[in-house]
Amino acid sequence: MSYQKILTIQDISCVGQCSLTVALPILSACGVETCVLPSAVLSTHTAGFTGFTFRDLTEDMPAIMDHWCKENIRFRAIYTGYLGSIRQIGIVQDIFAQTADEHCTTIVDPAMADNGSLYSIFDMAYVEAMKGLCAKADYVIPNITEACFLTGLEYKTEYDRSYIDSLLCGLSDLGCKNVILTGVSYVPGKTGIVVYEKGEYAYYEHEKLPNSCHGTGDIYASAFVGALVRGKTAYDAAAIAANYTMDCIRYTATLDNHWYGAAFEPVLGKLIGML
What we know:
By secondary structure, the chain is α/β, with parallel strands linked by helices. The chain has helices spanning 20-29, 61-70, 86-99, 124-135, 144-151, 161-174, 216-229, 234-252, 268-274; strands at 5-15, 33-44, 54-56, 75-80, 100-108, 113-114, 117-118, 139-140, 178-181, 190-197, 200-207.
């Protein structure tokens, strides 16, 4: 596999093990050159911390893109995480159009909702904008809540395969080419990932751990992207990312008072081994 250059676009929380502080080391550990475009800088993430600082970098993003275009910098993959505004979504669409190389794979994690609700900063106008970005991506990585907002279907905590099929069909109708749907649980004690690629359904099931950590969605998406860019199939990348994320959660459970994120660094060696 040749040495690849990837761009990831999301905010950076200086403390808190999420977003770019997760994506950059995980993607680098996967053996790909990782370039970054921070959409905002926060002193910490917003879950559990108070009084955090925030600096919006929206105004800087077009100039950065223009400089890359001037230098003829192109990317083999572009992966987006949390985007803070409708305007940022529009800028990312321009970045897709202007900095992707001819073989570029685009991956969108529509990080905007969980547990049946949108994040407080977002509204339905943001959802509509995110629909447009997802339609331009080669892969989207929503959880069930995000898939419901993108498709307009009712959010359910108890469901069967037909409900998941409806979500997948709705995302496909939206224009999403391939879907990695996370947090799909058909039976108690188990959860998993649905890989819907080129209209074909596959499911990777694994243990549902009793504890959870902030930032595991970013860990999962970053590990998936890294494995995919390294040449793994979408199904194998989904399985590797799930197994690695579980390793992170298990390790974090052994620590005292590590409430603000998942300790992904001590188990990076396992991810490298899986690749």
